[in-house]
Amino acid sequence: MKKLLLNINIILCCLLLLSPSVTAGEENQNILTMEELSIKVMPEFAYHPNDEKKEHPPLLIGFQGTMRNLSEQPQKGQIELPLPMEEKNFQIGYVADYSSDLSKVYEIEYIIDQEKGTISWTTSEEIQPNDVYKFVVEFYTDTIMIEKEKKSLSYQFKSFTDICLLNISFIEPLQAKQVVLNPAPEEKKTHADEKGIYSYFSQGIKAGEEKSFTLTYERNEARPTIELMETQGQPPIDTVEDEKDPAIFSIAAVSGAGVLAAGVFTYLSKRKRRKN
User: What's the start-to-end Cα distance of the chain, in Å?
Assistant: First the structure.
C-alpha cells in the first residue's frame, strides 16, 4: 500500500510576540519559549461540523502549546502558524487561547493565508513577565488510507523550535482492532489507565528534529468515536452541554488531563453554534 505521509513541517513564523516598541528593523530576540507541546492524533474521532458527505474516515489532529514570556515586559502580539493546507480536505476546526489562570477560554478570530499556508491570530490577553501563554489549534484531513477494513496513516512531525517537553499521543477509534504503532510505544510512557491512548514523551527537542510514526488498524464501524460515545453515554453529551462550562474540556486538554478532551470540546462548541 502506498503510504501517504502526513508531513507537518510546522514553523512558527512569528513565534515571537513583539511589544509595540519593537520594530521590524530591530534585532529580534526570543521572547517566548515553547515549554510544552502536546499533539493528539485522532483517527475517526469526529467529522468536521461542516462536512456534508461523510464517505471518508476523518483524521483530527490537535496541537496544545504552552509558551512562556521570558521578557521583562507584558507582551501582546501576533502568532503565525503554518499548517498542512495542501492535505486532502484540510479544514481548520478550532483555534483558541486561554487566560493565564486557565479560568477563561477565548475562541480566536484567525486569518488564513492560502498562499503562505498559514493561519495567524492576535493573543487575547497580555502575557505577563514569566507567565505562560496556552493555545490550541485543531484541524481535519482525509489522509487515512483504506484497504477494505484495514486503515493506515503515516505521521511525521518536524520541530519548528526548541521544545522542553513534547508529547505525541495517538488515540485509537472505538471498536478498532489489530492496532499497530511503529515505533511501538514504551508501556511505561503510555496512559496506563486510559485504554486506547498511546503516548510518546520526549524532552529537550531541538528545532528541526523529526519524529515519524505509522499507525494501522482494522475497523468496520462507519460512525466516528464521538457518535459512539454519545450512544454509550461516554460522556453524556447533552448533560455536559447543558450543565457545565465547556471551557472545562479545553483546560483539561491543555493541561494533559482528560481523555479526548480537545476533540470533545471542538464537537460541543461547533454543535452549539449550529443549534444557535
Answer: 44
Assess contact for 170 and 152: CB atoms under 8 A: no
pTM, full prediction:
0.76
Specify whether the backbone of 175 is left (phi greater than 0), alpha (psi in -120 to 50) or beta.
left
Distance of alpha carbon 209 from alpha carbon 105, whole angstroms: 31
Cα separation, 54 vs 44, in Å, equals 11
Phi first, then psi: give them for residue 34, nearest 5 degrees: -85, 105
3-state secondary structure of 253: helix
What are the tens digits of pLDDT across the range 134-163?
A: 999 999 999 999 998 899 999 998 887 889
DSSP state of 183: S
Q: Which residue has the cell 515549554?
A: 35
Question: Partners of 65 in the beta sheet?
Answer: 37, 135
Ranges assigned E (strand) in 90-186: 91-98, 105-107, 111-113, 118-122, 132-141, 145-147, 150-158, 163-171, 177-182
Domains of the chain as residue ranges with CATH: 5-275 (2.60.40.1730)
